[in-house]
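Sample entry (269 residues):
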Amino acid sequence: MTKDVERVLRHYTLKDEAGRLWSTARGELTRRRTWDIFERFLPGSGQVADIGGGPGTHASHLAGLGYDVVLVDPVPKHIEQASAVAAGFPCHLGDARSLPLPDASFDAVLLMGPLYHLADAADRQSALREAFRVLRPGGRLLAEVISRYAWIIDATTRGLLGDRGIWDTFELNLRTGQSNTPDRPDEVFWAYFHRIEEVGPEVERAGFVHERLLAVEGFAGPLGNLEELLREPEQLMRVIRLTESEPAMLGISAHLMAVAAKPVIDVGA
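Predicted structure, serialized as tokens:
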């Protein structure tokens, strides 16, 4: 078991991932925007591999829309939770870098966690190449990353600027992209924070055609009146779409979604 997997297991043993996208306004925004992106950029039907699918929030949603879904996650607790809510889709314990799935068997692959939980660039490439392998030619990849500035913005909105060591953490985030150093307690969230300009080239190195980078929460994530705005979610979704791909606005979003495709002719062949 690698260090990244050990950290993921410790983190999600302590955290309620099943409730994260339902229990807060920010969680609701992330979930609604993610599903909005799914609706517009996934194929209208077909087989979807949800890699790092956690307790099955997205997989259950897509299965309910008629997709044939397979979920893979490295956390046994998540597999138990996903299996309990699974609407007829299989759930497998597995690693994004070595998928228990056949070649060219999916119309779409979701990577909603591996590209930030895998702190090493070589490991992220392994996950992307596995996604490429299991996709059919012409298949669609939706891959989520965390913005380099996510913790700086989040800590500021939460009033943490006076906390001990916070400025050292910010400096580390900006300089290396790492969320924390290896000598920090393992229960601290471990992730890689991407710069905007890194995402496309990283996806393309694995053989994909990178089509666009979208803000998930966008400028709405830090807003103090977010709960009020979510009373009319369709209006909020509509206004976020106006700036979802504007380069000058992307860095403010906590999460970013890369949209890419596997070429019909394998350029790596």
